[in-house]
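Renewal narrative, Specific Aim 1. Our central claim is that a sequence can be written position by position from structural information alone. The example that follows is taken directly from our test logs and has not been curated for this report. It begins with the structure tokens describing the chain, in the order in which they were read.
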């Protein structure tokens, strides 16, 4: 009995002292609160997008009374056309639920929404968080925006975060573009990162991109992050007349 008990004691001690194995699929740290951002994409029937935006402009105050609109854009280049993209900010999921209930009871909002739904062909919603090392920035003046969507290998920021951050910072620190925000998808296509950039114009964006491609500091940083990349897509965005981000 003493031999058995002694063997059990050694086994338990070994189990206690064994190093913990962390899965490579761990996503790493997130922000400290529940704040998230909903990416809403609307696809319109041809010739119907402008009609929808004009109607929404007249009624957007009914919607922004309940939660913050970060920005609203139409897609100029990249992917499907006749597309509008919104970013909404929420304190947490309970907040979003409260907003949805309040809007469902708002007769003025429903009076706008119901007839305008017929103008929409398709909708896509994603829930995202800012990556832990990024704060949402607001450009000081009007310009154009570029949304770059990166499909990353599984593992989250704990896997690709450092290399990805160095690649972005290489562009920012050298003045090739201004970073607005970096978002990691929680609901939607997983392992997806949305990077929102600002430039004064489409031409200044093109010039900065060409220069960065010839800068060995940027090339070295990007080459490292490419190891974690599956695919990428970008869109040039123009702010709508009622967008807080101009």
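The sequence written for that structure reads:
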């Amino acid at each position: 009995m003493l031999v058995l008990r002694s063997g059990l004691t050694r086994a338990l001690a070994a189990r206690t002292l064994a190093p913990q194995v962390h899965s490579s699929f761990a996503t790493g740290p997130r922000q400290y609160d529940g704040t998230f951002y909903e990416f809403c994409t609307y696809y319109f029937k041809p010739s119907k997008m402008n009609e929808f935006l004009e109607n929404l402009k007249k009624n957007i105050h009914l919607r922004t009374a309940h939660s913050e609109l970060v920005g609203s854009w139409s897609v100029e280049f990249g992917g499907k056309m006749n597309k509008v993209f919104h970013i909404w900010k929420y304190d947490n999921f309970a907040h979003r639920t409260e907003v949805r209930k309040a809007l469902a009871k708002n007769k003025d909002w429903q009076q706008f929404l119901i007839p305008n739904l017929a103008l929409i062909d398709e909708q896509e919603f994603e829930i995202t968080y800012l990556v832990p090392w990024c704060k949402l920035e607001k450009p000081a003046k009007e310009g154009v925006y570029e949304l770059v969507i990166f499909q990353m290998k599984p593992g989250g920021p704990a896997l690709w975060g450092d290399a990805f951050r160095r690649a972005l910072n290489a562009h920012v620190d050298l003045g090739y573009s201004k970073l607005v925000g970096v978002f990691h998808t929680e609901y939607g296509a997983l392992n997806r990162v949305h990077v929102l950039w600002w430039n004064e114009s489409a031409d200044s964006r093109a010039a900065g991109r060409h220069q960065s491609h010839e800068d060995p500091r940027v090339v070295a940083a990007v080459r490292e992050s490419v190891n974690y990349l599956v695919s990428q897509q970008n869109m040039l965005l123009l702010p709508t007349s009622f967008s807080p981000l101009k």
